[in-house]
Design brief:
The protein has 329 residues and is mainly α. The protein has one domain. The chain contains 17 helices and no strands. It is found in: Cell membrane.
């Protein structure tokens, strides 16, 4: 026992690593400034800081709202206002995403809880897709990221809501409960840890998880703006179909938080608005993070069917919304 305790005391934590890095930066700041005095690095650092600084306030607000919902808004409250007919309930659940915002990480367990309380899977999945994509935090962040372009906000709202409703209707028609893992539909007891501890833990968890993806997105945006030749991005942007395909796949791989992805999309200035809009519609609906969460929550059989369906619907709805609101810009 003493040996284990001693080993735990000697373990280097992330806080100690951060302190060490700060000391090195303070002591060797002159040397580091000379080492990093490269135009490309300066440009990349500027892009990275701009993306993170603009997105962070919305990210914090989003996780606070997500924590409040998890702690103070029981899932049965949504069930109480849903029509019994899934065809009618799917649009209601999609519209509820406007009033009950949350990030992708939070929407998956909420959707499972709805299913465990008797809500039809198609209805719960419509809410899962709508909540992180059409809530006010995301829409305001999109407006800030694209100043003077309200059509991007309207197009994102329309494309994302259409994705949630269409996917829900398709799942109501063709989905099967046998595709879900048994634990996904098994009723679980309510947590008794208290509302405020639940709020704090949910907000902390979402902030840590989403903050990491925000940093990844900022780094990626910086790399794209510096390392990738402008001519290459211009060539991709010149082909609308290729641009849509590339940015759709990029949205899946980056797995950005929906409160932050608009700032990354705005930084891709060499791409037309339509592919960037599709990027914003696809990202909150399907990405590698969500696929992993869905495998762990609903089972592999479900994820293998739901992810491709959502990806195809999101691209289609994003293109249609873009054609209506932003045209070929």
């Amino acid at each position: 026992m003493t040996t284990i305790v001693d080993r735990d005391k000697r373990r280097i934590t992330s806080v100690e690593v951060l302190c060490a890095l700060l000391v090195i930066a303070l002591v060797g700041h002159t040397w580091l400034a000379d080492l990093l005095d490269v135009p490309a690095l300066r440009t990349g650092a500027t892009v990275f800081v701009a993306v993170c600084a603009q997105a962070l306030p919305f990210l914090v607000l989003g996780v606070l709202i997500s924590g409040a919902i998890a702690a103070f808004v029981p899932a049965k409250a949504l069930r109480a206002v849903l029509p019994r007919n899934p065809v009618l309930a799917v649009p209601v659940a999609g519209a509820a995403g406007v009033a009950l915002p949350g990030c992708e990480c939070a929407s998956v367990p909420v959707a499972r809880r709805l299913m465990q309380q008797g809500v039809a899977p198609s209805v719960a999945l419509a809410f899962l897709l709508a909540a992180p994509a059409v809530n006010p935090v995301v829409l305001v962040a999109t407006a800030v990221a694209f100043p003077g372009q309200p059509e991007m906000v309207a197009a994102r709202f329309a494309g994302s809501l259409a994705t949630a409703i269409t996917t829900g209707w398709l799942w109501a028609k063709f989905g099967k409960n046998s595709w879900f893992a048994s634990k996904a539909l098994t009723r679980l007891p309510e947590q008794d840890g208290g509302r405020w501890p639940t709020f704090a833990e949910t907000a902390r968890h979402d902030l840590v998880e989403a903050g990491g993806f925000l940093v990844l997105g900022g780094i990626t945006a910086a790399v794209l703006n510096v390392a990738v030749p402008t001519s290459l991005l211009s060539a991709v942007g010149g082909n609308m179909v290729l641009g849509v395909v590339v940015l759709s796949l990029l949205a899946v791989v980056l797995a950005l938080c929906s409160e932050a992805d608009a700032f990354v999309a705005a930084s891709l200035t060499t791409m037309p608005l339509l592919p960037r809009l599709v990027f914003l519609v696809v990202g909150p609906a399907v990405d590698v993070k969500l696929i992993a969460l869905q495998v762990g929550t609903f089972g592999r059989s479900f994820a293998l069917r739901f992810a491709p369906l959502t990806f195809a619907v999101a691209i289609t709805c994003g293109v249609i919304a873009g054609a209506v609101f932003v045209g070929g810009a």
